[in-house]
Amino acid sequence: MVRIKDIKASKILNSRSDWTLSIEMLLGDGTPIRVSVPEGKSSGSHEAASVGVEEAINNIEKIILPAVRGFDVSDQPGLDRMLIRLDGTPNKSRLGANAILAVSMAAVRASALKAGVPLWQYIRGIARLESPRVRPRIFANVINGGLHAGNALDIQEYLIIPRTHNIRESVDIIHAVYHKLGTICNGKYGHSACLVGDEGGYAPALDNNLSPLSLIQSAAEGHAVDFGIDAAASNITMDKNKLLDLYRIMVDQFKLAYIEDPFQEDDFQSFTEMTAGYGDSAIITGDDLTVTNVNRMEEAWERKSVNGVIIKPNQVGTMTEAIEAVRRARDYGWSVIVSHRSGETNDDFIADFGVGVGADGIKIGAPSRGERVAKYNRLLEIG
C-alpha cells in the first residue's frame, strides 16, 4: 500500500506560452511523481470546467491535499470518487477539472511505478477492457488551420493516418510525408509556408479549404495513408449547407476516412445525417459534441449521430471517468480516438493512455515541436 504524503503544485508554460498546471505528488516513501495538465484552445462548452492556474494551485494545496493525504494511490476509483465529491458540482467548476485531473493522473503514474510495470500496461489492467493487442493508428495533423493557425483556413486540422498499427512503420510514414509536404509548400508558397501552427502542422497562408488536401495528396504519393479532417465546426461561421457541399467534395475527391466535429457542438441531427450518409466509409467523430461525457455520448448513440468518439481526459477531469467513456464507446461499437490538446506540455502520459485503453487511434499532432515529439518518442519506446 502506497499513500499520498504531500502535493506541491506550480504553474508552467504550455506549448502556446500560456500558463498551465504542474504538480509533484510525494509518496509516503519519499518518491516524487510529476504530471502536468494540457489545455485546449478549441474547447467544447460542455467540457468539465478548468479554473485559473493560481486558483487551481490554491485548491490543490488548501482543499484537495488535506482530503487525500494518506490515501492509497492504488485505489483509483476511490480516489476519483473522493475528488468528485469534494468538488460537488456537475462540471467540476469549484475545484477545477485541471486541478482534479492532475491528482488523478499522478495517482495512476505512481501506482504503475510501484507495481513495476509500464504506465500503459497498468492502465490496461485497471481499465479491464477487452483491449486489442495491436497499437493505435497515429492520426497526424500535418496542416493546421482554424484556431490553431494564423491563416484563413476554416478547417482546423488536416490529418494523415498511416494504414498500419505498427508504431515504427507509422512514424516512418508520417516523417516522410511531413518532410515532403514541407518541401512542396516551400516550393509553391515560399519559406513562410513552412511555419507551423499550434500542433506542429504547417500553416501556409491559404484560404481555400480544399488546397491542403491537394498538397497532402501530392506529399503522400506512394505511401499507404488515409486522409482526415477535424473541422472543429463550432468555430466555423460557414452556412451548414455550404459545409455539407465542402465535405461532399472532400469525400468524393480525396476519399476522406475520418471527419471530426463536422457541425456545431449541439447539432446532433446534422451529425446523424452525416453518419447516415458517410458512416459506411468514414469515421464520423464527436469531440465538442461528446466531450468525453457519458451523458452526451448516450444521446449521440441514441440518435445515431456518430460512429467514433474523441477521448480527452481533461474534458472530463478524472482517469476513472475517461476510462468509463472508453468502455461506453466500446459498448456502442464506436471507434475510439484518444487525443492530445493544442496547449500541450512535454508530459507524455496521453501516449500511454491511448495504448493502455486499446484505442483505435491516437491524435498527437505533427512530428514537430518538442511537446508533440515527446508523444511520438514515447510511442516508439512502447513499440
Q: Secondary structure elements and their pairing?
A:
Elements: E1 4-13, E2 19-27, E3 32-36, H1 53-68, H2 76-87, H3 97-115, H4 119-127, E4 137-144, E5 157-162, H5 167-189, H6 211-219, E6 225-230, H7 240-254, E7 258-260, H8 268-278, E8 283-286, H9 294-302, E9 308-311, H10 313-316, H11 319-332, E10 335-339, H12 349-356, E11 361-363, H13 370-382
Parallel strand pairs: 4-11, 6-7, 7-8, 8-9, 9-10, 10-11
Antiparallel strand pairs: 1-2, 2-3, 4-5, 5-6
Helix pairs in contact: 1-2, 1-3, 2-3, 3-4, 4-12, 5-6, 9-11, 12-13
How would you portray this structure in words?
This protein has 383 residues and is an alpha/beta fold. The chain folds into two domains: 4-118, Enolase-like, N-terminal domain (Enolase-like, domain 1, 2-Layer Sandwich), CATH 3.30.390.10; 127-382, Alpha-Beta Barrel (TIM Barrel), CATH 3.20.20.120. The chain contains 13 helices and eleven strands. It has helices at residues 53-68, 76-87, 97-115, 119-127, 167-189, 211-219, 240-254, 268-278, 294-302, 313-316, 319-332, 349-356, 370-382; strands at residues 4-13, 19-27, 32-36, 137-144, 157-162, 225-230, 258-260, 283-286, 308-311, 335-339, 361-363. An eight-stranded mixed barrel has the order 4-5-6-7-8-9-10-11, surrounded by five helices. A three-stranded antiparallel β-sheet has the order 1-2-3, with helices on one face. Helix 7 links the parallel strand 6 (225-230) and strand 7 (258-260). Helix 9 runs parallel beside helix 11 and helix 12 (349-356) crosses helix 13. It is globular, with a radius of gyration of 20 Å.
